[in-house]
Amino acid sequence: MSNFNVLTAIAAPLAIDNVDTDQIFPSRFTSKRRADGQFGTYLLYDQRFDETGNVKSDFVLNDARFHEARILVAASNYACGSARPGAIFSHIDFGIRAIIAESFGPVFAEVAYKSGLLTIQLAKQDTAYLRDVLSEKPGSQLTIDLTEQVVVAPDGRRFAFQIDPFTKRIFVQGGSEIDLTLSMKDQIVAFEARRRKVVPWAYDLAGRDLQSKS
């Protein structure tokens, strides 16, 4: 995952409450394998296409002015429902790097960051204001400054947000949780060396246990 400090990009408004993961990534697509970023095709599929596969011209993400959107400003309880990796990957493959909403489904918000999708929670009136601005001037850009923890509207109005410090560190530094662990390899090795001297019997028992299983 590339590092995320400041993102200035076109933002698309989605003023629909309780958009669940089955709407975001319909269950009939869950058997498909993700390759070459193709999951972006399935993002909000039934809202974007009719039963014959024709584009619904009145849906916001089908508006040419939002085709390059990298930020989605949703409403309340976005991505609620069952855990579904495709619900995360479809946003990423579509090009979305951050979602701003009044609230999120807890499972989605908990795991989205692991794949590099940033979720930001703002007050109801703030998300409504942003959606109104974006609807009035389609193609407008928002700025997300993760270092300062603020969203900047096209008119300069600023909205502060909270984020878990560990999640913020993952985004700002880039990489993954595993990369972060590996970056502390020297400290881990030193700790294990000290611990071996304090409780050598724990290492001896572990060694014998491994030998008995081999």
Structural features, described:
A hairpin with a 5-residue loop joins strand 6 (150-152) and strand 7 (158-160). Helix 8 crosses helix 9. Helices cover 38% and strands 14% of the residues. The chain is built from 9 helices and 7 strands. Mean pLDDT is 90; it is low at 209-214. The two termini are 38 Å apart. It has a 7-stranded mixed β-sheet. The chain has 214 residues and is an alpha/beta fold. It has 2 domains: 6-175, Aconitase, domain 4 (Alpha-Beta Barrel), CATH 3.20.19; 184-214. It has helices at residues 21-24, 45-48, 85-94, 106-112, 124-136, 165-173, 177-182, 185-198, 200-213, and strands spanning 6-13, 71-73, 98-101, 118-121, 141-145, 150-152, 158-160. The radius of gyration is 21 Å and the shape is globular.
Strand content is 5-15%
**Adjacency order of strands in the biggest sheet:** 4-3-2-1-5-6-7
Top CATH class of the largest domain: Alpha Beta
Class by alpha and beta content: alpha/beta
Outline, from the CA principal axes? globular
Q: Determine the number of helices (DSSP H or I, runs of at least 4 residues).
A: 9
Strand element count: 7
Helix fraction by DSSP (H/I, runs of at least 4): 25-40%
CATH architecture of the largest domain: Alpha-Beta Barrel
Question: What's the structural domain tally?
Answer: 2
Per-chain topology:
Blueprint: E1 6-13, H1 21-24, H2 45-48, E2 71-73, H3 85-94, E3 98-101, H4 106-112, E4 118-121, H5 124-136, E5 141-145, E6 150-152, E7 158-160, H6 165-173, H7 177-182, H8 185-198, H9 200-213
Parallel strand pairs: 1-2, 2-3, 3-4
Antiparallel strand pairs: 1-5, 5-6, 6-7
Helix pairs in contact: 8-9
